[in-house]
Structure formats: C-alpha cells, structure tokens
C-alpha cells in the first residue's frame, strides 16, 4: 500500500501496528454528548471512526458522553442512534460514560489516597484568580495541602449530598505553574443537584469531561481516541489522568486530533442550532434547512451522499471551511443515478391542443431513469388539456428563448411536437390559456420519422384531468453570509436569510406521485430533485425540493 493514500491518522495507526500493537487490539469510538441532534460535522467524525473500523475490521463503540445532566436528554440519545444507523454504520457496543460513574468515583478516591487530588472549598472566582495567566504561574489553593483524611471525608460527603452546588469541587493536584493552563489543578468533580436521564438521583456529583473521557476510553480499551483539534491541549491532561490509574498489562489509549468540519452558509455548533430551534427560526432540529443529519434526511439527502461528502472532504490537520456546494454536488450525483424521473408543474398555465380529440387519453411510457437501464418505465396520462410552467411560454421572445412562443415548435417531454398558435388573456392581461396544435405523428417512441425530429426545446407537462395537487417547499440557504458565526461584532442570528423557505401551495403533479413514500427520490424533470416531506398525508401531499439540477450559485 502506498503511504500517500493514507491520511495522517491512518499513518499513525500503521506506525503503531508496525511498532507491535496487535491488529486485534484496534478499537475506536464515536463519543457524542446527547445534548442535541447530530449534524454534518459529526458525520465527519462518524465516517472517520466507523470508516477506520471497516478498514481495520475493528470494533467501534458508540459512547454517549453523558456527564452533564443539565443539558442531556433521552430524546437526543434516540435521535443519535437513529441517525448513525441511517448513515449505514453499526456500533459494536452501546456505552455510556454514566455507566462508569462508580468506577470513576473509585479512581478519584484512589487519587486522593495517593495525594493526587484534593477538595477545594473556595469560590469559583477565587480559583479562577489563582490560576494565573499563561505567562505567570498560578497560586496554590489554601486547601492544596489539606490532609488525605480530610479530603476523603469531604469528597464522600460531597457524594452523599451534604453540600450545596458550588460549595466544593474535587481538583487534581498537578502543577500550578504549568505552561498548559489545563494542568493547573483542573476540576474532576462538581456538585450538581440534577437528575440524570439514566442514573436518576443516584449521583449529585458529576465528573468533568477530561476526567471521564480518557478513563472511559481506557475502560473500553479504545486504542485510538480521535477527537477534534480544540482538545489538543487536553492531551497532556488525558495522559496524566491515565498515568494515575493505568495497569500496564492493559492497552493504553492514545488521543489524536483532527480538524473540525465547518461548512459555509451555516452554523454547526449544537448550542447555536438549539437557539435556531428555540427561537423558532426553523420548525425543529429536523427542519430541512438545518445542517443536521435528520434535517438533511428530511430534505431528501441519502446516506450515500453524506458518506461521499465525508470521503471527498477528507480528514485534515488544520481547520478549514468546506463549501456547501460540495455537499450539494454529492447529492446531485447520487440522485442522478437513482431518482425516478417524473413531471410536475409548479406554476401552471393551461395549454390546449386544439387538434387533439377532447375525449382521448393516451398512457405514455416514461423512462424511470435514463442513467439506469434496469429502472423500467411508468405510465403518464396525456390528454388535450395540459398544464405547463408559466415561464415556459413567452408572448414575445428573443431568439435565445428555446421554449414555447407563438409560431414556434417545442416537444412535450415523451410526447408530441407542438406549435404555439394563440392565447387567451383575462381582463388584467394575464395569460390564462395557450392554444397550440400538435404534429400528431410525432409522438416520442412511435417510430415515425416525425418522432425522431429534433426541435430546440422540450417542456414538461401534466394532464389537467389527471394531475394531483401537492404542496411543494423550496429552500434557500438559511444564512445570507458565508461564515455567519465568524464575525466578532455581529451575532450569527443577524445573518438569517428571511426568504429561506418558499411554499408553493398548489403544484400539479403526474398521478404516479400519489403512491410516493418517504424513501422515494424523484427528479421532477427540468426542476430538480424532490422527496416527500414527513408532513405529508394522503389527502395533503407535501414535497421538499432537495436540490436543483445545477449549481445555481456557481460563479
Ligand atoms: P458541538 O460544538 O456541535 O456541540 P461537540 O464537539 O460538543 O460539538 P459532541 O457531541 O461532543 O459535540 O461530538 C461528538 C464527536 O463528534 C466528538 O468526537 C467531536 O469531536 C466530533 N465532532 C463534533 N463536531 C464536529 C465537527 N464539526 N467536525 C468533526 N467532528 C466533530
Ligand atoms: Mg463534546
Ligand atoms: Mg458541545
């Protein structure tokens, strides 16, 4: 294998294997905090960790990092599991940091006994003050040299609920002069009188992230704990904590960091996504405009497209922003290969074919997908009165307009060549009907010479008598600004696009779409890719536009 085809994390793993780590000891984890829904940034981490699992045939745990009951909920746990499965990945074990609360507590007691931890009763402000600055050493807490007996007693009483939140914390005794501020006696435990979604009221002290995370990796014997760059400085602490409890006969986990995935025209932190939900800027975590996995799914994105996006954006050592048009490119590519071609008219105007019999209905065969020879056909009814898109006709048009005008020809998709003859307008001058004649031997696929004749434009259409009505929702970017949360002087909420949702109350679709299900993907010919929305019911169909056929944002 050529080493240039490996990303830098794979290179680290290969080096570890070469240095003697047995391949069967490789183990990875994806560690979400259940305080929100997964987003496209998480998908990078999911695809990375589960991708390594597939590559090395190694187990990947799903670990819920549930150490902060103030923000965590079962709803999020369920949604996270659903999203990972939907992406097509299977975890080896479902783990929870909260399952390790007793073990973590026991280890904390061991740290106290080894004079490596102490209970501090100062205010948060006093402790922050004593921390110092990166260029000046900190000042030791007056409690730092308290006796082991006193620390054990206070810690047990913290656990037993004898104190109010904030009264005491347990701190590691490391180095108040360290150049790494995180090493200046970090907090291991704080008192929180909050019920936990899994442990209920069993605990009123909760471990901090740094204490829980590495030790959880160790308990699960994770070989490579891959996290995002903001944890780089935490690695020293991760290693220090492991040093305190590590049994050399067991595997020692290794933390390594990679860059977060950011994407243009959106925000990606759960806190900000939650604010969009709470402020009702969007209808929920799964609003089709959200960068969440559930929003993308509802919008019509496929697991394959999200996995492809992760693959092509790659894993990096440095933070960067991926253009959202790359994600759109990935879904377009996938749907082009898989979506069923149908016709729907979003802004209808009536078209009457004056030489076509009024009582005649033909069932025309429409190719389901020209990209897939095995996809077959479905039938579309054709009759004398049709709807076409209002913008596909112009009374007066220049010679660059290849759609319908008076006196010129276009082909109706999979049907006849027609020629515009006249039109009807209402009192306000709005066109209400277009009359045309069809070349009756030109039907596509009929084998005649006229059926082969090529004309400049092809229009989509639906038969008025057979069309079904549906609501169609079209989306634009949720933010008008490429990097909405990168402004120091402005809040990201100031860049919300007020026109990110366009609702078409009454679109007309070919009747085949009455049988659409949530999993079906369609290309509405000439308009884009669409899928049924979860709001849809049998008497009120609702379709979402996933993406247009072309990148309308390309410069
Ligand atoms: P947020 O800031 O959105 O709340 P988080 O990092 O706090 O993100 P976690 O639930 O802790 O969210 O994330 C689970 C895993 O996914 C972590 O390993 C985290 O590093 C990774 N992750 C989160 N966001 C991204 C991102 N934008 N790009 C790549 N990985 C991410
Ligand atoms: Mg986190
Ligand atoms: Mg977070």
TrEMBL record:
Glutamyl/glutaminyl-tRNA synthetase class Ib catalytic domain: residues covered: 25-336
Known EC number? 6.1.1.18
What would be an example GO MF term here? Answer: ligase activity
Q: Where are the transmembrane segments?
A: none
Give the record's keywords alphabetically: Aminoacyl-tRNA synthetase, ATP-binding, Cytoplasm, Ligase, Nucleotide-binding, Protein biosynthesis
What superkingdom does the record give?
Bacteria
In this chain the Glutamyl/glutaminyl-tRNA synthetase class Ib anti-codon binding domain maps to 339-438
Catalytic reactions of this protein? tRNA(Gln) + L-glutamine + ATP = L-glutaminyl-tRNA(Gln) + AMP + diphosphate
Give residue ranges for domain tRNA synthetases class I (E and Q) anti-codon binding: 458-533
Q: Which family does it belong to?
A: Belongs to the class-I aminoacyl-tRNA synthetase family.
- What is the name of this protein? Glutamine--tRNA ligase
Q: Which residues of the full protein are shown?
A: 3 to 557 of 677
């Amino acid at each position: 294998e050529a080493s240039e085809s490996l990303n830098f994390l794979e290179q680290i793993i290969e080096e570890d294997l070469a240095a003697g780590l047995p391949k069967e000891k490789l183990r990875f984890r994806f560690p979400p905090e259940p305080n929100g829904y997964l987003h496209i940034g998480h998908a990078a981490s999911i695809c990375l960790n589960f991708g390594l699992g597939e590559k090395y045939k190694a187990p990947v745990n799903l670990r819920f990092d549930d150490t902060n009951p103030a923000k965590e909920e079962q709803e999020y746990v369920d949604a996270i599991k659903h999203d990972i499965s939907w992406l097509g990945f299977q975890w080896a074990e479902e783990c929870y940091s909260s399952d390790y609360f007793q073990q973590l507590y026991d280890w904390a007691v061991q740290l106290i006994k080894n004079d490596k931890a102490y209970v501090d009763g100062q205010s948060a402000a006093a402790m922050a003050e004593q921390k110092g600055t990166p260029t000046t050493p900190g000042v030791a807490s007056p409690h730092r040299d308290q006796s082991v007996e006193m620390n054990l007693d206070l810690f047990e009483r913290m656990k037993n609920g004898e104190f109010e939140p904030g009264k005491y914390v347990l701190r590691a005794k490391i180095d108040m002069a360290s150049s790494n501020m995180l090493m200046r006696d970090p907090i291991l435990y704080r008192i929180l009188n909050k019920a936990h979604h899994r442990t209920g009221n069993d605990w009123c002290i909760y471990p901090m992230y740094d204490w829980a995370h590495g030790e959880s990796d160790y308990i699960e014997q994770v070989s490579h704990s891959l996290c995002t760059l903001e944890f780089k400085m935490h690695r020293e602490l991760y290693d220090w904590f492991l040093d305190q409890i590590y049994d050399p006969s067991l595997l020692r986990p290794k933390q390594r960091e990679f860059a977060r995935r950011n994407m243009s025209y959106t925000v990606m932190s759960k806190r900000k996504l939650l604010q969009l939900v709470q402020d009702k800027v969007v209808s929920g975590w799964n609003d089709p405009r959200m960068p969440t996995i559930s929003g993308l799914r509802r919008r019509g994105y496929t697991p394959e497209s999200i996995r492809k996006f992760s693959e092509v954006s790659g894993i990096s050592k440095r933070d960067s922003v991926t253009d959202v048009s790359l994600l759109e490119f990935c879904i377009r590519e996938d749907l082009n290969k898989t979506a069923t071609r149908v016709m729907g008219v979003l802004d209808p105007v009536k078209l009457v074919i004056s030489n076509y019999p009024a009582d005649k209905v033909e069932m025309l065969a429409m190719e389901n997908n020209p990209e897939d020879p095995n996809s077959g056909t479905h039938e579309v009814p054709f009759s004398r009165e049709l709807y076409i898109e209002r913008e596909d006709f112009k009374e007066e048009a220049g010679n660059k307009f290849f759609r319908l005008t008076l006196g010129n020809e276009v082909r109706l998709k999979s049907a006849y060549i027609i020629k515009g003859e006249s039109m009807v307008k209402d009192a306000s001058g709005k066109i209400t009907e277009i009359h045309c004649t069809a070349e009756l031997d030109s039907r596509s696929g009929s084998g005649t010479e006229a059926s082969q004749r090529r004309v400049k434009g092809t229009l989509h259409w639906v038969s008025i008598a057979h069309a079904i009505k549906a609501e169609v929702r079209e989306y634009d970017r949720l933010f008008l600004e490429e990097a909405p949360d990168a402004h120091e002087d402005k809040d990201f909420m100031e860049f919300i696009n007020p026109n990110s949702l366009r609702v078409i109350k009454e679109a007309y679709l070919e009747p085949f779409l009455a049988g659409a299900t949530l999993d079906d993907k369609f290309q509405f010919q000439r308009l884009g890719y669409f899928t049924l929305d979860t709001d849809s019911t049998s008497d009120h169909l609702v379709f979402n536009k996933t993406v247009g056929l072309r990148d309308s944002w390309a410069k």
